[in-house]
Design brief:
It is globular, with a radius of gyration of 19 Å. The protein has a single domain, classed as Rossmann fold (3-Layer(aba) Sandwich), CATH 3.40.50.300. The strands form 2 sheets. The chain has a 6-stranded mixed beta sheet with strand order 5-6-7-3-8-9, sandwiched between helices. Strands 2-1-4 form a 3-stranded antiparallel beta sheet, with helices on one face. It is of the alpha/beta class. The structure holds adenosine-5'-diphosphate and magnesium ion (MG).
Length: 268
């Protein structure tokens, strides 16, 4: 077996006295798509930012493609980050730049020839179905289109790893399906390794090889979609139950069959 692409080992992250991640360990194999699920404020974004070394861990370590980014000097850390695409929670586009300049930002910084940048950007926009939007500005795009531009930007340098922070949050069900299909297609086409942070259980079940569920800074479940759905953990079943009802209300498509959650145990 090759080494896992991402190894998170006993990660602890605190802000002052508030422990956000209380010892989180998991691995992601090369080519795998793993979703990390949990309620708002459980530290999902903090986890992604720590993986890419925008935040330092208080304890534990993270290795990405064999490298501990936190131990690299600034120059090598920046270099290592180029192999990691990061899709921000908001689209985080530059309002004053058009789609070409937003998606090609990293390539312009490298001073590559304009026609080469345009060609690469067009290729990435094709991957997200937005090649016609190349000359538009963010204000001319819908929320879902902006997310797709953010996605195109994350893959502009053909990363081996993509970290998605809430790629479908706040989107309607049809747009959510479009984004999920793009995530699935990217994975099939380029064998990319991905972590998708979300509280959208329906999307997570549709796109993931494995789901990791976090509550109060700890992993409460880690398994394939069918293992998670069969879990007898009360917290997991409650999360699946709540979300599946929400998903059913939102979606006109047949919903994924999820076992009915057992009644919550007293005191939970
Ligand atoms: N830079 C920071 N400084 C202090 N507290 C932070 C910082 N970033 C996140 N937090 C806190 O960490 C917790 C988890 O945040 P976050 O990872 O954004 O949650 P979510 O699971 O919704 O993505 C929240 O209580 C948040 O207020
Ligand atoms: Mg978040």
């Amino acid at each position: 077996m090759p080494d896992p692409a991402i190894v998170v080992d006993n990660l602890v992250k605190r802000f002052d006295t508030h422990t956000v991640l209380g010892g989180v360990s998991f691995t992601v194999e090369e080519g795998e798509t793993v979703s990390v699920l949990g309620r708002s404020g459980t530290g999902k974004s903090v986890l992604l930012k720590t993986i890419i070394a925008l935040l330092d861990p208080d304890e534990g370590s993270v290795r990405v493609l064999g490298q501990d980014l936190h131990r690299l000097d600034e120059e090598h850390r920046l270099e290592a980050r180029k192999g990691i695409g990061y899709v921000f929670q908001g689209a985080a586009l530059f309002d004053s730049l058009n789609v070409l300049e937003n998606v090609g930002f990293a390539l312009y910084q490298k001073h590559l020839p304009e026609d080469e940048i345009r060609k690469t950007v067009l290729d990435r926009l094709e991957a997200v179905g937005l090649e016609d939007a190349i000359d538009k500005f963010p204000s001319e795009l819908s929320g879902g289109m902006q997310k797709r531009v953010g996605l195109a930007r994350a893959i502009v340098e053909s990363p081996r790893i993509i970290l998605y922070d809430e790629p479908t949050t706040g989107l309607d069900p049809l747009t959510t399906d479009v984004i999920n299909k793009i995530i699935l297609r990217l994975r099939a086409k380029s064998h990319v390794t991905s972590i998708v942070v979300t509280h959208d259980i329906r999307s997570a079940l549709a796109i993931s090889d494995r789901l990791i569920m976090i509550d109060q800074g700890r992993i409460v479940a880690n398994g394939t979609p069918s293992e998670i759905q069969a879990s007898d953990n009360a917290w997991v079943q409650r999360f699946l139950g709540i979300r599946s009802v929400e998903a059913a209300a939102l979606s006109s498509r047949p919903r994924i069959a999820i076992r009915r959650p057992p009644p919550a145990a007293p005191g939970t």
